[in-house]
């Protein structure tokens, strides 16, 4: 089933159920040849899931040589040589058979992205995900980065805290992209949010806010939050490779004029210097990004 009651509730509230039904026809369980070819070109993959111990939801970044993630069946992808380090908050989830995971492969060079949600199981060389949902999104709000190079830099030691430091606040407020993991009773999802730098506001060491820009009307993310407020955020320094992960809860605020704001309360923060060995070129911002005040 493409939509659960949470997504349906948001679609009805916003008045886009018919549009959502049309878009939902593109969601399948099979990985088409064009999608399989796209995956094999990617040097990174973002995934979202809940830690089986404690239930905190996190988004994590995987990197590897192109081909480290590939379709190994009509409904399966396999990840090899690019597994999570033991210190990553989702390492335990991927080691647990049957964990619900959401994945998103995003290519800044072509401004294309593909999402695959399903259930993971460990394999001798990494892990595999059997797909429940496979679909692509439009390039809206996705910044273009022409190229990348491999940087010789070992990952730093993760730094954990209960709130954002002043430096981490500046990191978040200068971001043009972040990834958002959410869950529902029968699955997980990982999505992308983009905008001009400053589109995410840090209102306190624990609180973030951003405007929910108009999208494809599916409301998978906001639908998940309607039924389960747990969420995980991932911010990436596209040049230095630093990764900032936050877990906590999120809520959607609806204004009378139809505008939506999402508020996020962080309960734990993990910053890993040089977590990604990939150095991307500077961005060309999406023409769809709304202007900021």
UniProtKB/TrEMBL annotation:
Region of interest (Disordered), residue spans: 146-167
Signal peptide interval: none
UniProt organism field: Streptomyces olivochromogenes
UniProt protein name: Pyridoxamine 5'-phosphate oxidase N-terminal domain-containing protein
Domain Pyridoxamine 5'-phosphate oxidase N-terminal: 168-253
Annotated SUPFAM superfamilies: FMN-binding split barrel
Tree of life domain: Bacteria
Alphabetical list of Pfam families matching this protein: PNPOx_N
